[in-house]
Amino acid sequence: MARLLTDEKRITDFFACDVFDDKAMKAFMSGADYNAFVEVIQNGKELDRQLADKVADAMKEWAMSKGATHYTHWFQPLTDATAEKHDAFISIDQNGKTILEFSGKNLMRGEADASSFPSGGLRATFEARGYTIWDVTSPAFIKKSNGGAGVLCIPTAFCSFGGEALDKKTPLLRSMAVLDKEARRLLELIGKPCKSVSPNVGGEQEYFLISKEAFNKRDDLKITGRTLFGALPPKGQEKNDQYYAKIKEDVLDYMADLNESLWKLGITAKTQHNEVAPSQHELAPIFTSANIATDQNQLIMETMKKVADRHGLKCLLHEKPFDGISGSGKHNNWSLCTDDGRNLLSMGKDEQSNRTFLLFFMAVIAAVDDYQDLLRMSCASAGNDRRIGGHEAPPAIISVYVGDKVSQILSVIEHKNGEFKNIKEYLEMGVKTMPKLKKDDSDRNRTSPFAFTGNKFEFRMVGSQQTLSTPNVILNTIVADALGRFSDKIEAAKGEELDSVLSKIIYDEYMAHKRIIFNGNNYSSDWTEEAARRGLYNLTNAVDAFEALNRKEVRALFNKYGIFNDVEVAARYRIYLTDYSQTVNIEARTALSIAKTCILPRAMAYQGELAVKANALGALSCGKIQVKQIKTLEKYINDFDKAIDALEVATKTAQATSDLKEKAVACRDLIIPKLDELRVIADEMELICDKNVWGRPNYQDILFRD
Ligand code: ADP
Ligand code: MG
């Protein structure tokens, strides 16, 4: 393995060395230009062309000093991935001389042929132009290939010729602006003003690490990211002996390389550990502003894969690579922070700050209750459907876990009819024995999809390969909406005593939304029944969850805050449905191909082999077991053949549907059940056939790599 920088340098010496950060800006820009640019980044001052030219020049010089030869506008189209098109700095001037060029214009705006990106009908092919627009709030960075080729990456938003968002960044920036506005408005009204409020996000990323050799022998993993066949190994994760277990040497080497690569990109990779499943791991960076956290999470996923390749490994980011084994998620830790460093979801020591806490806390509760379906939608995908609702994953029902401490406070609010005096008494009592609400006090309920964990909310439903953008767009917007509603109430009660107005808001909101709070075991069947009694949504699959985008109130919400207009929402709805159907179809086609060209021939070959032996043994009045085995296999082979036909019919029926919704429904109701039936038979056969005949690495080979 290559020697790591960490062998010889302190981390702080090379941290963010590939980022055009404050340090790089200072080194490559004049003092005046630097100051002017900081105003643009921090206070949203307009960027003029002259300054843009200066910044571009500094970026180019800096990037070239790091060996970069190209630049790219790096953006997030309406997939879960990122996109880039490289341009070399090299150019020819009017005298035919070779020059190195990168102007403010190149930096600020790019024009991309957008025709091959999903647009959900937002743009006709004849007007295929799309624009990429520089996001000054996320720093530019250099991506290097394993061989050292360097590209300056400029984070950008991506929109159509008509200005509609064609990406995941634009709505996130819009939602952050809206949340900032509504949070400041409320803080102002309650006498706690600040200059800005930003959502902070820490995304914990789960992943599997398997050997490249095994990966390359599994077409299902290669094509679909998950195993479409495979019987459970004799030992899975039932003993829970993987979680936090000692990390294997080769994984530690991988993690060291990964961390170093991320640190160079200015990503604060912080925590690493083994997860519940064999060969499953997790990485968490330190939280940062939602926009940067989202960009960084994309880089984390990309870097995880790239570094794995260097180590003869493959990093799997699919939500459920292995049936019967824990899937992978991405926990979205979310809080609100003011420019002067106050976490608005942190309980304070006095009545005043607790009032602020309770207002913001209640805004989240109300928002989650009002828009459960939309939150569920924000993590809906064919991949995540394989995980959500499983025994180790969050259920499909959204509820909020608040923990004992907050439960007690809420109970005081409910029974004393919201008088702050009582809460204060309670908190003072609490303060005597426990001076501060320590983070550890918030015992975690691992079964909850949305848990309050001391000073932040942790949304655990997000799938491991999904972008962090969508869940945060939704969270920011729905919380902004609730905060706005609170402010409206305060404004309407002008002249009344503020304390009692706030008490009433907190009480009323709690009473109206307390059904969303659930501190029990989310995996139990009792909860499913109880949730139905409470009238909570139970959207068990992505196709149903996408319908949230058609709900009247949801459209009105997006319109009101300018997050998406109706055309943009409709486009996203179409893209989600299309992606769902395509994923299921690709899985079906891959399964059919493996079933027909690999599994069936091998099962028949093995049966044939047994038949030859049974014949020979029969002459000796032996071979009873062989005959028994042949008959068992005969049944399986027949069933398997029928299951192949059934899946083929289902696939054709779904393909013949032209309406997007109907097609997705057909994929869900016709293809998926047949796909799963086919698998069951294959897995049964795998368990009785000679392993050498089977020929492909099985779960044991893949998951218990030595
Ligand atoms: P866990 O037990 O869930 O792993 P951690 O304390 O390790 O909890 O935090 C997990 C993630 O939450 C990390 O990415 C961390 O940076 C992030 N995080 C911690 N505090 C906050 C906060 N106030 N806002 C947003 N994210 C946070
Ligand atoms: Mg967590």
Report on this model:
With 706 residues, this protein is of the alpha+beta class. The chain folds into 3 domains: 7-167, Glutamine synthetase, N-terminal domain (Ubiquitin-like (UB roll)); 175-231 and 239-420 and 434-564, Glutamine synthetase/guanido kinase, catalytic domain (Creatine Kinase, Chain A, domain 2); 579-703, Four Helix Bundle (Hemerythrin (Met), subunit A) (Up-down Bundle), CATH 1.20.120. It contains 25 helices and 17 strands. Strands 9, 10, 11, 12, 13, 14, 15, 16 and 17 form a 9-stranded mixed β-sheet that branches. Strands 1, 2, 5, 6, 7 and 8 form a 6-stranded mixed β-sheet that branches. α11 packs parallel to α17 (498-513) and α21 packs antiparallel against α22. The longest helix is centred in the C-terminal third of the chain and has 53 residues, at 566-618. Mean pLDDT is 91; it is low at 418-441. The site of adenosine-5'-diphosphate has 16 residues, from β9, β11 and β14.
> Largest sheet, if any?
9 strands, mixed
Helix content: 40-55%
The CATH topology of the largest domain: Creatine Kinase, Chain A, domain 2
**Assigned CATH class of the largest domain:** Alpha Beta
Structural class: alpha+beta
Number of strands: 17
CATH superfamily of the largest domain: Glutamine synthetase/guanido kinase, catalytic domain
- Return the domain count: 3
Relative strand content: 5-15%
Query: Bound compounds, please?
Result: adenosine-5'-diphosphate, magnesium ion
What is the annotated CATH architecture of the largest domain? 2-Layer Sandwich
Number of helices: 25
Runs in which pLDDT lies below 50 for 5 or more consecutive residues are 418-441
- The N- to C-terminal Cα distance equals 18 Å
| Cα gyration radius (Å) | 28 Å
Question: Quick one: overall form?
Answer: globular
Mean pLDDT: 91
